[in-house]
Write a structure and sequence with these properties.
The complex is a heterodimer of chains A (152) and B (161). By secondary structure, chain A is mostly helical. Helix content of chain A is 85%, strand content 0%. The longest helix of chain B is centred in the N-terminal third of the chain and has 46 residues. The chains are: A mainly alpha (152), B mainly alpha (161). At the A-B interface, helix 2 and helix 4 of A face helix 2, helix 3 and helix 4 of B.
């Protein structure tokens, strides 16, 4: 039975024979401090989102029909940019602190899911940003070349 | 009943938290994204160094072309401050991405070899990452507050502002 289980466990990335990974005191301390900082960043991001919401709503009210559409569009983009990272940080922080305080393993699992989601969001966001940047650069270059700017 | 009590005592003890398979899967995925961010960050730090090394000779050229005026001397002083500021920013950026890289490699190593040392080092590096970012954020907030108060007091001291 042991022989059959061995390759399966190795495949899932389980630790080889010996002491499995432990949440030692050092790891707990570091996780707790990370969680507290994460809450700080989450609150900061929510405050920034609130300020941006107020500003874009003011712009929307001031600008007529186009202003309302533009303001709501900008508000949507801001919400997308700021809400999800802040929410993931907030969930990571609260769940990690709950897990460390009450020895709640399920909460800890959930906390790491939110940490992963945070980094995935930032990663995809940056990939999209770089993609847009390259696209604009290529579009600008082709426009520049096809316009025959030098022959005018 | 005794067995149940023992079970409960063990669960609520210091070692109640266990590394599970789901955690490992999430950590591996996290470490890949963190590694990506760290490498990208190093590239941007390098680009920033490159930009600074291009701008410094340009600033010097402007200074030599403008002659020995009062403005040139002021610009020279500003150039020094700019250089120090740039170096500081590059150093901070480097350390932020360095901590991210160490977190990612530590997690991956602890998953592969079951190394407790690498595991502890990984979380220490994530903490360092949060710490350096948090300190920068607090410093920026304080600078904003000081600038706002300064502008406010300037505006208040001038009646026709």
């Amino acid at each position: 039975m042991e022989d059959i289980n061995q390759p399966l466990e190795a495949d899932t990335g389980a630790a080889p024979a010996g002491q499995p990974l432990q949440f030692s005191d050092a790891v707990r301390r570091d996780l707790l401090e990370s969680a507290k900082w994460a809450l700080f960043f989450a609150v900061l991001l929510f405050i920034v989102l609130g300020i941006l919401t107020i500003i874009s709503l003011m712009a929307a009210v001031a600008g007529g029909v186009m202003g309302i559409l533009g303001g709501l569009f900008v508000l949507g983009i801001y919400t997308l940019f700021f809400f999800f990272p802040a929410w993931y940080y907030y969930k990571f922080s609260t769940l990690a602190r709950q897990a460390l305080g009450f020895e709640d393993n399920e909460a800890l699992e959930e906390a790491f899911v939110y940490l992963k989601r945070f980094y995935r969001f930032i990663g995809i966001f940056i990939i999209v940003f770089i993609g847009l940047y390259l696209l604009l650069a290529i579009a600008g270059l082709t426009a520049f070349i096809s316009n025959d700017l030098f022959n005018r | 009943m005794e067995i149940l009590d023992n079970q409960f005592a063990q669960d609520s003890g210091k070692n109640g938290l266990q590394v599970t398979r789901n955690m490992k899967i999430n950590w591996l995925s996290t470490s890949k994204w963190v590694m990506f961010l760290a490498i990208l960050g190093f590239i941007f730090t390098g680009l920033m160094v490159l930009a600074a090394s291009v701008m410094m000779p340009m600033l010097n050229m402007i200074l030599t072309m403008s002659g020995q005026s009062e403005l040139a001397r002021q610009l020279e002083a500003a150039g020094g401050i700019f250089m120090v500021f740039m170096l500081l920013m590059v150093a901070i950026m480097f350390f932020i991405h360095f901590f991210h890289l160490r977190f990612a490699t530590g997690i991956q190593r602890s998953m592969q070899y079951g190394s407790q040392d690498a595991f502890e080092s990984a979380w220490r590096n994530l903490r360092n990452f949060f710490r350096i970012n948090g300190i920068i954020a607090i410093a920026m907030l304080v600078i904003y507050a000081v600038v706002l108060i300064f502008i406010g007091s300037m505006a208040a001291s001038q009646p026709d502002f």
